[in-house]
């Protein structure tokens, strides 16, 4: 992150929803130097009351329960662990803070996945300090914050995903009962061999059912087929062996 240049671009007012105290911000990033530098710069701003920086998911979980920050700046990759795994813990901690992803990635798929998981904003690590504060203001006011150059592709991806969901509705009606049985096993997470055992079929028969469904639905892979089934509301097989989740 680079420091601010010129006059501050934000009005000097307190954010909606927190009129009686300065912002409390938790930085979760496994790059200690970046986290510490960003924390120092944020602490120097009179709109910010407290900044904590941690480098691990475990430390972030503990801090979320004790500090109760207003904003969490969250790296996606915490030494191989997905930063989004922190979100359920933030929910359990009580009043959930707004979460802004702080990432080096500009991939549309990464941004969409984070938004689907429940984050309120996304900023890149090459942004400046004022963008962090602008993002904080916007998400506390109930808005999403995205980089301007990512807005169009992200909106396009979300619209396409919505259209895919719409297309998936009712597609189960075009399948035979046996195809639905096979698909339900795949949604559960079973392999083709496990599906064959579950349904007393041969593996070749299961493969044929899958290939026929892909052809019928215009899909190209089993993961696509499973994703479409889940969007259509197909549930997993209740299984005492632990396949269903």
Properties at a glance:
alpha/beta, Rossmann fold, 245 residues, 13% strand, 2 domains, five-stranded parallel beta sheet, two-stranded antiparallel ribbon, elongated, disordered N terminus, Arc Repressor Mutant, subunit A
Walk me through this protein's architecture:
This protein is α/β, with parallel strands linked by helices. It folds into 2 domains: 137 residues, Response regulator (Rossmann fold); 63 residues, Arc Repressor Mutant, subunit A. The chain is built from 10 helices and 7 strands. Strands 2-1-3-6-7 form a 5-stranded parallel sheet, with helices on both faces. Strands 4-5 form a two-stranded antiparallel ribbon. α1 links the parallel β1 and β2. α7 packs across α9. The chain is elongated. It starts with 22 loop residues before the first strand and ends in a 14-residue tail after the last helix.
